[in-house]
Specification:
The chain is mostly helical. Among the domains are: about 190 residues, no CATH class; about 140 residues, no CATH class; about 100 residues, no CATH class. It contains 30 helices and twelve strands. The strands form six sheets. Strands 1-2 form a two-stranded antiparallel ribbon. Strands 3-4 form a two-stranded antiparallel ribbon. A hairpin with a 4-residue loop joins strand 1 and strand 2. Helix 2 crosses helix 17 and helix 3 packs parallel to helix 5. The chain starts with a helix and ends with a strand. The relative contact order is 0.12.
């Protein structure tokens, strides 16, 4: 271990980043680069102390090519182009690694990659299948949160306390996504945000934890009382339609649309703060049908206990639940997101599994864990700044270990392991080979155009937000009936039907049924495609989460992937595609072409032996030989893994 780095362990700890405003209303100023560097320095000190205590060596720094590839994939979710590789590798700037990280965090690629992460964490799908309605307003809300770098505690609070119509408040989608399954939604919330596995307690006292069934229902009382806004106005209409069997008439079709896209995507109130015990409740501390009030768990890591008085019925219990969850005294919330971000950058969690809370004292380095959690709170859950800080550490820049390690060895953070690309990273890297910098490709954009029966209507006249607001404000069935009849005529007369895509034929053919945010198909970043990708798409084949379960993505290899790599989509989209960016930029002599192929796929130059073998292949087979070279590189283990 370098002596200078060991010596850092003797330096007194510096204060954390001082970005806390005196009042909640004050604007939060992101930490400066100097502050992030100071915090990164403290992280290095603590890891150095850990290694010294464990008598473990610190590895050498990663090479420039490894650092380049790792940083692009971690921040922007893709490999660099050949030109980007050359620009970095040939640069003599003393702070080129620091500058690279700064530039990547400012790129559209970072927003795209974080969008994928958030969409996965929240299990966001393009449609709410349980109510047959578009989820594009929710997708748009999540993507906007990633683009605006919404502080994580604020994002969680907005989701948990969401209310209103989805087209005005996309966060409502968090509950609509699990409509009819409020207890499952609560279990997912506690696992996602708090690292607490309590799904077993829905049916019985937890066999391996301290959770009791009654405690589960006391917690579920916070989110109980979910219903649609003014749905009682709609009920007589649906009864009339069903009775007269007029579902397929224009009036029936428009009201089915109103039910699914307007009423069912709304959420009234903010929780009632109480819930009935289920009919099969079997413990002595309550009887089936008893009302129980909302109460949060007790324990140091949960912070201050919140409960509602039996003398009053709260109508803001979801808001109170959100306050408790994101309170600075709730160490579970801060610790879980800290661990998620640490693993995202470093490859190994402070503790594993990353979504099961562990007290800092039980981690391999309590000092490091406590420091990182405080840092996350000090910078007000700014996930971009937190990841940026981690990537300024020397620990992030350690070289990769190629040997298989035991869990105890991995937790020392001095043997970074190869990590297989996620489906999104793999796809976006292929897109880079096909189209060059994918930040320049079209995006789906943000719009709340009304889509009726798969077609845009009233474009420029009314948005979904306006339509939902007007419908939810109707206070009688007769007014809704009159409004529906008027809407039928307006939709039929809409000029949008005949001018669907005058300016941009391609973009309009890429719309999905009922969507208002137009996910693209074809060559576009994963974050711009349907969420998730359909069965048969490369993203699905390579393990993209179906967004049904938490942590639903897979990085396991399978035969379908091999077939798709060797003679399927990868072959047709990249290797055999003369218009692909990598082909167009591979010019000059065979040696020059090979170097471009290496820089564009593996972010490095070929070794002399590799160069000799591949020159011989091109000399023998010409263009077909170059395609073979490209195929070998793309299908190599080195391409499929993050170093």
């Amino acid at each position: 271990m370098p002596m200078l780095w060991i010596a850092l362990t003797t330096i007194l700890a510096m204060p954390l980043l001082s970005a806390a405003p005196s009042k909640k209303s004050e604007k939060i100023i992101p930490p400066s680069e100097e502050e992030m560097l100071a915090a990164a320095h403290q992280i290095d000190i603590k890891v150095a102390a850990l290694l010294k205590r464990k008598k473990a060596p610190a590895p050498a720094d990663a090479s420039d090519s490894v650092f380049l590839r790792r940083s692009f994939l971690t921040i922007a979710g893709r490999i660099p182009t050949a030109k980007e590789s050359i620009d970095f590798l040939e640069s003599d700037a003393p702070k080129k690694r620091q500058n690279l990280i700064n530039d990547l965090f400012k790129s559209k690629g970072y927003t795209s990659h974080m969008s994928n992460w958030l969409l996965d964490q929240l299990r966001v799908r393009e449609r709410f299948s349980t109510i047959n309605a578009s989820a594009s307003a929710y997708v748009r809300w999540v993507r906007k949160a990633a683009r605006n770098n919404t502080p994580y505690d604020k994002l969680a609070h907005q989701l948990i306390s969401a209310r209103g119509g989805i087209w005005s408040n996309g966060a409502v989608g968090y509950y609509i996504r699990d409509k009819g399954m409020p207890l499952d939604n609560l279990s997912n919330s506690m696992r996602l945000f708090m690292g607490t596995r309590m799904e077993c307690a829905q049916c019985h006292d937890h066999p391996f934890d301290d959770w009791e069934r009654k405690e589960f229902y006391e917690l579920a009382a916070f989110t109980n009382g979910q219903s649609e806004i003014n749905y009682n106005i709609y009920r007589p209409i649906v009864t009339e339609i069903n009775k007269n069997e007029t579902r397929e008439t224009p009036f029936g079709q428009i009201n089915t649309f109103i039910r699914n896209e307007i009423y069912r995507t709304s959420l009234s109130g903010s929780g009632i703060g109480r819930i009935k015990l289920p009919a099969d409740y079997q413990y002595r501390d309550g009887s089936p049908g008893d009302w129980v009030g909302a109460r949060t768990p007790t324990g140091k890591s949960y912070g201050k206990t919140t409960r509602f008085s039996k003398q009053r019925h709260s109508t803001e219990s979801r808001h109170e639940f959100a306050n408790w969850m994101t309170d600075h005294r709730n160490q579970r919330f801060a610790t879980i997101i800290t661990n998620r971000m640490w693993k995202r950058v470093m490859g190994t969690g402070l503790f594993e599994p990353i979504d099961e809370f562990v007290e800092p004292e039980e981690t391999v380095s309590p000092e490091l864990t406590r420091y990182l959690v405080r840092l996350m709170q000090e910078i007000h859950y700014d996930l971009r700044a937190f990841q940026h800080t981690l990537m300024l550490t020397r620990v992030y820049g350690f070289s990769t270990s190629l040997k298989q390690l035991a869990p105890a060895e991995k937790s020392l953070f001095n043997n970074r392991q190869l990590t297989r690309l996620s489906a999104e990273q793999y796809w976006d890297s292929l897109v880079t080979l096909i189209a060059g910098n994918p930040d320049k490709l079209p995006t789906r954009g943000d719009t709340d155009t009304i889509y009726y029966r798969g077609r845009p209507v009233l474009v420029g006249e009314m948005t979904m937000a306006q339509l939902q607001k007007e419908v939810l404000a109707l206070d009688s069935p007769s007014k809704l009936r009159k409004y529906s009849n008027t809407l039928v005529k307006r939709f039929q007369n809409s000029s949008s039907h005949s001018s669907a895509s005058g300016k941009n034929n391609m973009s309009m053919t890429m719309m999905t049924k009922g969507g208002s945010s137009a996910p693209l198909k074809g060559i576009a970043r994963a974050s711009e495609l349907a969420s998730p990708a359909p069965v048969g798409h490369l993203l699905h084949t390579f393990g993209q989460s179906e967004r049904l379960l938490l942590e639903g993505a897979s990085k396991e290899a399978n035969t379908s992937q091999v077939l798709m790599m060797l003679n399927g989509k990868v072959e047709s989209l990249v290797v055999a595609n003369p218009n692909a960016h990598i082909h167009k930029n591979a010019k000059g002599s065979p040696r020059d072409k090979i170097k471009t192929a290496f820089l564009g796929t593996l972010s490095r130059l070929p070794s002399p032996d590799e160069l000799a073998i591949m020159e011989a292949e091109i000399a023998t087979r010409g263009d077909a030989g170059f395609r073979n070279v490209l195929s070998a590189l793309i299908n190599s283990r080195e391409f499929l893994f993050i170093p």
